[in-house]
Amino acid sequence: MRKKLLAGNWKMNLVPTEARALIAALRAEIDRDSATLAKDREVMVAPPAILIPSVAQALAGSSIFLGAQNMHFEDKGAFTGEVSPPMLKSYGVTHVILGHSERRHVFNESDELINKKVLAALKHRLVPILCVGETQEEHDGGRALEVVLRQLERGLEGVSSEAVAGVILAYEPVWAIGTGRTATPEQAESIHGALRGVILERYDRAHADQVRILYGGSVTADNVDSLISKPDIDGALVGGASLKADSFARIVKARTH
Length: 257
Ligand code: PGA
Hints:
Bound molecules: 2-phosphoglycolic acid
Number of helices: 13
Distance between the termini: 14 Å
CATH class: Alpha Beta
Low-confidence stretches: none
């Protein structure tokens, strides 16, 4: 059984006092049910890089995983402004979001660069959360599938069959991010099925069954149940609704059927 992953992407929000307060409130909601929740799900938060040390402290002893929103693929060097995999690891980061649509479209990250980051994450035993998703224009032009499959193929270039089960995918249609417009559970399920099909073709059935595929894009406490009840939707990557303890705690406790 694939455990669901409910992951919060804080993007460029919160300062340390707010971050610590959010973690404290979340832990109050989640930690007491953690034994029950742990049976079929995992929880992760991805703060901005500069908040990682204080969030790591606030999470001490919690079952909530600590993620990063991005990283460079090199271990160290002359890369002003960047953060390396060993730096993240040293603070207990376990997951890293890669190829988020804002990285692709605002910061012009290419499939080739994202692929280097995926390989670097795997090398350092960080779980890459590889994001794919089509823009509004591509969606309207009926090209959603073509776009996400290309992003997936290129993102996984050179990923071995031993490593692929440790990759998490996230389907995030760009037109649904921060817009309040969600893909319907049926729309998302059909793309997720196609993504899993690529894993099946490139690797095999066992690996395709293991890879988790999250949905992201305007996930809220109100729509999360119907999305993650779908068999190929293995969790959610949540932006806006992960910034409030009550809404994210409700999302974490989503009903899966
Ligand atoms: P949103 O963001 O939930 O605010 O739409 C999702 C994401 O970008 O990961």
